Prior knowledge:
Radius of gyration: 17 Å
Strand content: 25-35%
Mean pLDDT: 84
Strand order of the largest sheet: 1-2-3-4-5-7-6
Distance between the termini: 42 Å
Helix content: 25-40%
Order of helices and strands: EHHHEEEHEHEEHH
Largest sheet: 7 strands, mixed
Low-confidence stretches: 182-195, 208-218
Amino acid sequence: MTSVTFRDITAGDAVLVAALHAASWRSAYRGILSDAYLASDVDFERAEFWRQRLGVLSDADHFGLIAMHHGAPIGFVFVTRDADPIWGSLIDNLHVSAAMRSAGIGQRLLVAAADGIATRRWGHRVHLWVYDANVRARAFYARLGGTEVEGRVKAVPDGSRASTWRVAWDDLEHLRAVPPRTAGIADALLVPLDVDAQLDLLRTEERDRAQDTREPWR
């Protein structure tokens, strides 16, 4: 099987995680978030979000992992401890690059997150939220033993509201015990992710914005 490794997310990864996050939204959330929003400064909005989040990152309450393949970032997961008094820790973010979907990376990230929760002794339950319209993701979580335990209409980043589901695992061990996919990752799947290009663009635009006092960076 082609090697995939995981490393911890650190405060210095804000721009990298933001690039993965924005690219995933534009791919997976087309038709869920508005086209106008996805065509806007999502990269910069996510960069600011992750700078703020990772700038106050507490190992006691959060952790995240980046999946790497041949030195390239291909996805990430981020966990918040005890986000709900009933359903426990929250898988707050789980994103895989479009080029690597259906290669088992999402499952490995999810199981790695469950392992991290268990190692930290953060309880035996875990949950996440998924858009009702994200049929592919809902089927993926169901295949891994997740149960849709609650529906809720939530405000979403483009300013609208959307139906979502809380997907929960009542016992971490059930998730950790899901057999890994046996198929390897074909190198042919590694179409360019343009993460490096996105990083360069973000840095260039940030420099331009820093020099333009008429438009404060958001």
